[in-house]
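Q: For a teaching handout, I want to show students what a protein-ligand complex looks like in token form. Below are the inputs, and the small molecule is flavin-adenine dinucleotide. Please produce the holo structure.
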Amino acid sequence: MQTRGERFFQSLKDGRNVWLDGRKVGELTGHPAFAGTLRTIGKLFDQLDDAEVRDEVGFPVEETGVYAHSSFLVPRSPADLAQRSRAFAHWAKETNGVMSRLSDYARSLVTGWYGARERLNRLDSRFAGKIEAYYREARDRDLFLTTSLLDPQIDRSKGLDDKKIAERYLHVVKETSEGIVLRGAKMIATGAPYSHDFLIFSFHRLPHAHKKHAHALIVPAGSAGLHIVCRESFADAREDDHVLSAHYDEMDAVLLFDDVLVPWERVLLYGDADAVWQLRTNRSSNALAFHQTVVRLAVKLEFVAGVTFAIAEAIGVNGFLHIQEMLGELLTKIDTIEALLLASEAHAEADESGIWVPKLSYIDTARSLGTRLYPRALDILRQVGGGGFVQTPSSVADFNGPIGDLLHRYYEGASVGAEQKVRLFKLAWDLIGSPLGSRHELYERFYAGDPVRAFAGQYLSADTSRLTEPVWRLLNESGRG
Ligand SMILES: Cc1cc2nc3c(=O)[nH]c(=O)nc-3n(C[C@H](O)[C@H](O)[C@H](O)COP(=O)(O)OP(=O)(O)OC[C@H]3O[C@@H](n4cnc5c(N)ncnc54)[C@H](O)[C@@H]3O)c2cc1C
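A: Here is the structure, written as tokens, with flavin-adenine dinucleotide included.
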């Protein structure tokens, strides 16, 4: 019998158009760009059938008794929310926080929409039925989902009133009895080559008049006419030298829709820009989804701190005061994110649909801070390691070569042997200097949208009167003498 991981691999053979290095990728599991990452995901999927850990990552579906991932659990109580949090943390720890899109984020959006379906039905009277059917299918078939919400970066100074922009951004070209036909591009879809379905809608608010561009869709990856255009691969099979790149390159892609038919049952919303915006800004689904991103960020910061501490000890710099200051700073970053996470869970409340929703403002704050904390954490790692990152032989295998004895002698550290020290610095390089590491720094800055507008959005959506009112009161009172 196939394991869940094997079923997942099998299900990806659906004729999808994955483009890499000018060629269509046939077999994903055997391809060097995807093999390591898929092995990682396959192992995570298998955990749902492992009696030792399945309760940590999943829950038995009431109707079938079969375990589904907890990102599909609609939280109705603090215990449910804690169960979701544990599942996110478990997968994040298994991947050192480096795999950011293990589908649990996009699955959580679907779960939130499903939980709030009766209320969201006001956006379109067919919404509840469609999302209920899809939620059950995604949960019971372990569907791997990702989002693709941004429009292609052509000319950001222009909007949909520009003819070229309107033609290139994803829009409907035809309606048929079966569904709508779409043309245009969407970016960026992390994990796209091995996702089953894409959640597609607009991240930014659309002008009311542009009905053809207003949609919320669930698009099967194997749709005819859909092209998944991968960036250059950062996977590196040399596990001893690039342990993160060997297992965790998630791949990012742009989606090109060359007249893709999306069947009506997968068209959640269409033609109503306000309805799309209301779905996009639905607080409950966003809080459930971004909750996962904060759990992961905390784990990733712990990992970066762990690597930094190990390096400081390995080369004997941890006794210097300014190094200790920076190591302490790393701990404050972890505590800051963990405290916000705990606060978001402690201040969770039931929404109008009875979903137990973590407090979104704390989650938003953690997300926004992450765009600055993560790059700073890497800066500290760079400062602590100095030139050590490039004082490594080209490969760990060199230790077994003709000059192995010399390497063992001259690459030795303060507290570790030469080979361990080299392995450690190579791991650190995979965080700060490899293509994968650079991509991650960019990811943490931008994955949740433009950080500039994210911070500004917090101001714009806040009730600022509670802060200004005491100021005016003080001035008015002091004015009266
Ligand atoms: C590694 C990585 C993985 C990602 N994965 C996903 C994913 O899986 N799914 C997904 O949906 N998205 C994903 N994203 C996309 C991410 O959501 C966008 O990159 C992000 O929203 C920023 O948009 P942009 O890249 O179009 O930048 P732009 O919006 O083009 O911004 C570029 C610069 O111009 C400025 N700017 C542009 N327009 C304006 C404006 N109108 N007002 C003010 N300033 C402006 C910005 O501040 C920024 O400095 C990913 C991004 C990265 C880097």
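A: Two things your students might notice: The domain at 4-279 is CATH 2.40.110.10 (Butyryl-CoA Dehydrogenase, subunit A; domain 2). DSSP finds 18 helices and 14 strands in the chain.
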